[in-house]
Amino acid sequence: xxxxxxxxxxxxxxxQAAKIAERYxxxxxxxxxMLRAEIASETPLGLRAKALIDEGELVPDxxxxxxxxxxxxxxxxxxGFLLDGFPRTxxxxxxxxxxxxxxxxxxxxxxxxxxxxxxxxxxxxxxxKRTYSVDPDAxxxxxxxxxxxxxxxRDDDKPETVAHRLAVYAEQxxxxxxxxxxRGLLTEVDGSGSVDGVAESIFAELSAAEAxxxxxxx
Length: 218
Ligand code: AMP
Prior knowledge:
Elements (H helix, E strand, L loop, with lengths): L1 E5 L6 H12 L2 E4 H10 L3 H11 L6 H12 L8 E4 L5 H10 L4 E6 L2 H10 E3 L6 E3 L25 H15 L1 H8 L3 E5 L4 H16 L2 H5 L1
Parallel strand pairs: 1-3, 1-4, 2-3, 4-7
Antiparallel strand pairs: 5-6
Helix pairs in contact: 1-9, 2-3, 4-5, 6-7
C-alpha cells in the first residue's frame, strides 16, 4: 500500500504515521525527520534547510522531491510506504505522481484552536526523538521517560513560528485536499479525538477503501 498522510502541523501526523506504518508494515517516510537528520549531521543541505525550517518556511520543492524520489526507490519501500509531511505543495504532488502510484491520501482534519493548543504542549526528546504532549502549567521542565533526557520545544513550534506555519499550510498545502479529492484518492478522518481513536478511524477507512465493491455494498 502506498499512502500519503495530509494534515496541518500539529494534526498528529507523525504519531499516526508510526501506527499506520506498523499496522501495514510500511516504510515510514517523514520528510521533516529526514531534514532534521541532515541538520544534525550539519550537511550543506541541512544548513540550508535549518534557516528555512526555523522560520516556518518550506524547503524548496526540487530538494524535497529529489530526496523522496531517492528514498522510495530503496528496498524497504517495495511492499509500500507512508509519506508523512510530503507532498506539501501542488508541484510536489504532481511530480510524485509521475514517479509513483498512490493508493490513498488520508487527511487528518483538526480545527485551528486545537492545533495551537497541541503545539503549545508538544515537547520532543532531543536524544531519542520521542514526542510528548505535556501540561506547560504543571512544570517548567520535563524528562524523556525512555532515556531521561530533558525534553525541548522544537524551534519551529515556538508560537510566532506556529502562526506562520499555519498560514503556509493554508496557502500552499491545503490545496492538495482538492487535488487528491479530484483524483478519487482522498479519505478524510476527524483528528480531534484520542490518539487510539483517530488511529481506529484511519484503519476503518483504509479497510473500507481496500474492500472489494461487493463487500462494501453488503
Ligand atoms: P514536519 O516535521 O513535517 O512538520 O516538517 C518540519 C519542517 O520541515 C516544515 O515546517 C518544513 O519547513 C520542512 N519540510 C518538511 N517536509 C517538507 C516538504 N514536503 N516540503 C517542504 N518543506 C518541508
